[in-house]
Amino acid sequence: MIRRSLPLRLRAAAAALVLALAGCASGGPELQDWPHELRRLGLDPGELPNPVAHTEEMAAAAREAAGEGADRDRLHRLQQLLFDGERFPFEYDAAGTYGAEEAFRLRRGNCVSFTSLFVALGRALGIPLQAALVHVGEVERDGNLVVVNDHMVAVHVEAGDLALYDFAQERRDRPVSGLLLLDDLWLGAVHLNNRGTEELRAGRIQEAVHDLELAIRLAPGFIAPYGNLGVARRMAGDADGALDAYRRALEIDAESPTILGNLAGLYRSLGRPEEAEAELRAADLSGATPFLLITRGDLELAGGRSGQALRLYHRAHRMAPELPEPLLAIARAELARGRPRAARRALDRALERDPGHEAARRLERRLGSRGGP
């Protein structure tokens, strides 16, 4: 699981905050000398272990499972071992982003950990594998953060033909779109980015800043750590540092909806609404999260364009029907249009999804008891 996350508010909606994989690979799939590459970047190899390093124990397990034959036959048998809960019990842990050695030892981790483990085991057999990002964009809420998850797979390239090894078994038959191959430095940056994300979620802001800055050193063209660093610095009260992180991210993708949404939220918190509006209007809504759509809808609603706001709110609801926030936004818009019954219907549906939602309860009190006019 590759994470992006957003701090929840900008009125009833969330500003965007990034916590996931994004970007494209640079360089080859495998680094022959990880310590040398880190020293070249001015980093300490002792602080940053190779996420796809393997031990002799891991190599022996890979050889036993894979047997002999063509590379893809051996990879298939290796994959079957990792799917076999009796021979190789492995517990899924959404927050567990581990390197291959640690994942092998702990027998747990998320899709990044599992993919790193498979890549390491395949390379122990002499088979070149690399990691790749698959865009998913699934959204979940975690307290005051909204987390956007993407997905990672392993890839084997042979004579121009790609074979994918997906360890989310429920996804294995789904079509793949937006596949981005990652080299080892980018994979290391993904590990650090996810680790920084978890530090943010736990409120360990300085630790998050440390990991995210290291991720940027490993992969300067990887946009996600810049967005997350902006969030971390904003949470630490460093508005100038947050602005700098967002601006550096926009040098990579000037229309990133997540970064522009984050930047708009920061401008609003600084009392600079005109700049916030400009950033929201610049965002490419084709790749927007539901929360950015709500925020953009709030902008339309504030300008008296309730019909356009409702279209954006309904689009957000279609993207994430399990979330209460789009329905709450619809309720607010319907109330602004003088349609309290329609507002009540939308509000009731929001409360079905989250009976304790604070903003929904405030609107409920404003509308009166359920079943009222």
Q: Note the run of SSEs as H and E.
A: EHHHEHEHEEEEHHHHHHHHHHH
> What's the story with the biggest beta sheet?
5 strands, antiparallel
Give the helix/strand class.
Answer: alpha+beta
- For the record, give the distance between the C-alpha atoms at the N and C termini, rounded to a whole number: 45 Å
- Average pLDDT confidence is 82
Global outline:
globular
What tags apply to this protein structure?
16 helices, disordered N terminus, two-stranded parallel ribbon, 53% helix, 373 residues, Serine Threonine Protein Phosphatase 5, Tetratricopeptide repeat, 2 domains, 5-stranded antiparallel sheet, alpha+beta, single chain, 12% strand
How is this fold's topology laid out?
Elements: E1 2-7, H1 34-40, H2 56-66, H3 71-83, E2 91-92, H4 100-106, E3 108-109, H5 111-124, E4 130-142, E5 145-158, E6 161-165, E7 180-182, H6 184-201, H7 205-218, H8 223-235, H9 239-252, H10 257-269, H11 273-282, H12 290-302, H13 306-319, H14 324-336, H15 340-353, H16 358-367
Helix pairs in contact: 2-5, 4-5, 6-7, 6-8, 7-8, 8-9, 8-10, 9-10, 10-11, 12-13, 12-14, 13-14, 14-15, 15-16
What can you tell me about this protein's structure?
It is globular, with a radius of gyration of 22 Å. The strands form 2 sheets. Strands 1, 4, 5, 6 and 7 form a 5-stranded antiparallel β-sheet that branches. The protein has a two-stranded parallel sheet with strand order 2-3. With 373 residues, the chain is α+β, with helices and mostly antiparallel strands. Helices cover 53% and strands 12% of the residues. It folds into 2 domains: 2-252, Tetratricopeptide repeat domain (Serine Threonine Protein Phosphatase 5, Tetratricopeptide repeat, Alpha Horseshoe); 289-367, Serine Threonine Protein Phosphatase 5, Tetratricopeptide repeat (Alpha Horseshoe), CATH 1.25.40. The protein has helices at 34-40, 56-66, 71-83, 100-106, 111-124, 184-201, 205-218, 223-235, 239-252, 257-269, 273-282, 290-302, 306-319, 324-336, 340-353, 358-367; strands at 2-7, 91-92, 108-109, 130-142, 145-158, 161-165, 180-182.
